[in-house]
Every structure is written in C-alpha cells, then in structure tokens.
TrEMBL record:
SUPFAM superfamilies: Metallo-dependent hydrolases. One of its GO terms (molecular function) is hydrolase activity. It comes from Paraburkholderia dipogonis. Keywords: Hydrolase. This is 2-pyrone-4,6-dicarboxylate hydrolase.
C-alpha cells in the first residue's frame, strides 16, 4: 500500500502498466470505451483519499497507450477518488483534440452551465455506482448513486446523455426499469458483473441477455473485473459469445486501463485485444463493436 504525505496529493504512486501492440491491426476509428486518467497530482489532486494505490496515469500516458494499441478513439470514465471534480477528465478531453469522449460524475445540484461545459468538452454520459466496496460493503468514497440520476434525468435527456452504471448483475433489471421510467438509456460496466461460477443459465445472466435482445441496455465488454482466470479468461468465453449473439449492436469494448486495485493481476491491453480478436473472428462484428457502436453512443465525428 502506498504511503502518502497528503492523501489527496499522493507522492508514492504506482506506474501505469503500459500496453504492447496487439497482434492484429485494429479497424480505423476503433475505440477503447472504458479507461481512466489519474494525475499529474500536483495539478489534479484527489477530492477524497483513494482506497487503492493510485496509479500515475496522466493524459499523455493514456494517449500513448491508445497509440500503442492502434485505437484512434477512447472513452474516459471519471474514477471515484476525483469525486465530482471533473477537471482532470476535462483536461484530457481537451488534450485529445476530438478523439476522446468522457463519462463524468456530478451531483444533483450541478448548474446548467456546468453540465453544458462538460457536454461541450465531450462528455456524453454520467457515471453512477451501485456496487458496494468489497472492503466496507458501503458505496465507494467519491461515488454517486442512482438517486442522483433520477434528479438529473430531465437535464441529461436534454443533452442526449445516457447513464453509465456499475452494479451487480442481479440488480440490472430493476435499475434498467427505473431509468427507463425517467426516459434514460443505460450502459452497464464490466459485462454487468455476473458471477461466472453460476453458469450461463443462471436467471441473472439470462435476464441480462433478454434486455440485450430487446435493445434496452448497453454493455461494456471489459473482462478483467469479472474473471479470475487471467490471462486467458476462459471462463468468460461462453458469456461473451452469448452477449454478442443476443445483440452485438448494444455492446462496446473497453480495457479498464490502468487497472486499479489489480496489482500483479493487471492485464496488458494488447493481450485483451488479442483475446477479443480470437473470440470474435467475424470482421464485421468486430467493426460493429469497436467502431460503429461507440461512434453512435458517444457521438464521435468522422
């Protein structure tokens, strides 16, 4: 665990794990739809002390990662230690020159001007966390729950923003229905966080497949938080296949770089893409998931 002089301006940080180039060349305008930036901490201190060793993963390092894997586009997601201070996220969006979109975090008292500022800089969604901390069983410090989405729903709709939610698989149907009642579309992180040991026939995963077939949810195909069988993640292959079969147009691919709280188990983004190419051998389907869907969802311009 890192030692801090100031927990909001950490000095002892974990270097971000850099990627190797994947074996396969990505299609033009491919997108890594789930990553994070951290630091530099003298410019962007945390708003709450981090519950994990903080990585040094500033925008310049992130853009190098995207270039290494051959992804022209990326989506950055606000991490919990920054709370509702989206300055590091916005600075990265500005530095990206149009190749990056963002998923921010804010509270119900955000002004219209603040939301418009986020939108004009490339934010296309707000993140809501319904996943309890494994250490405390309580919400992660700095996270914002679904109740805030209900308060912001009308203003999110006006901006054509969706809700991005980190939640347990068993909660997906209820969350979807709640957001639908407010007219909000939803994208779930980390493949909906199902338990692979329960099998593909378990009712929770079958509910997710039904919602995908109906086009009622989007899902991020990010493997590393769901499986403990790194680096091949063989336990996830049947789930991954069934999600694509259910509705490939509702899926985007994300790495989850720089892999906080994973330590030595952190994967290589290039390896994750090689696994994706192995599992999805149809070029048209790969293009749908890597290019077309994120372009539509995050409104990238050609």
């Amino acid at each position: 665990m890192s030692n801090f002089t100031d927990p909001l301006r950490p000095l002892d940080v974990v270097p971000a794990k850099m990627a190797h180039s994947p074996r396969n060349r990505l299609p033009d305008n491919a997108c890594d739809a789930h990553s994070h930036v951290f630091g530099p901490y003298q410019d962007f201190p945390f708003t709450t002390a981090s519950s994990y060793p903080p990585p040094l993963a500033p925008c310049a390092t992130y853009l190098t990662m995207l270039d290494t894997i051959g992804a022209k586009r990326g989506v950055l997601v606000q991490p919990a230690p920054y709370g509702i201070n989206n300055e590091a996220l916005v600075a990265a969006l500005q530095a990206g020159g149009g190749r990056i979109r963002g998923v921010a975090v804010t509270q119900r008292d955000a002004t219209d001007e603040a939301l418009q500022h986020l939108d004009s800089n490339g934010v296309r969604a707000l993140r809501f966390n319904e996943m309890p901390s494994p250490q405390t069983g309580k919400p992660f410090a700095g996270s914002v729950g679904l109740d805030v989405a209900l308060s912001l729903a009308s203003r999110m709709k006006a901006l054509v923003w969706h809700a991005q939610v980190w939640a347990r698989c068993s909660d997906v149907p209820a969350i979807t229905e709640t957001l639908e009642c407010e007219g909000l579309s939803v994208v779930f992180e980390h493949m909906t966080c199902f338990d692979p040991s329960l099998g593909t026939g378990h009712r929770d995963f079958q509910n997710v497949l039904a919602l995908l077939r109906e086009g009622r949810i989007g899902v991020k195909l990010a493997l590393c938080r769901v499986s403990k069988q790194a680096p091949g993640y063989k336990d996830l292959r049947p789930f991954h296949d069934l999600m694509i079969e259910a509705n490939a147009r509702q899926l985007v691919w994300g790495s989850d770089w720089p892999f906080v709280r994973m330590g030595d188990a952190a994967p290589d983004v290039g390896d994750l893409l090689d696994t994706f190419y192995e599992w999805v051998d149809d070029a048209s389907l790969r293009n749908t998931i890597l290019v077309d869907n994120p372009a539509r969802l995050y409104r990238f311009e050609d």
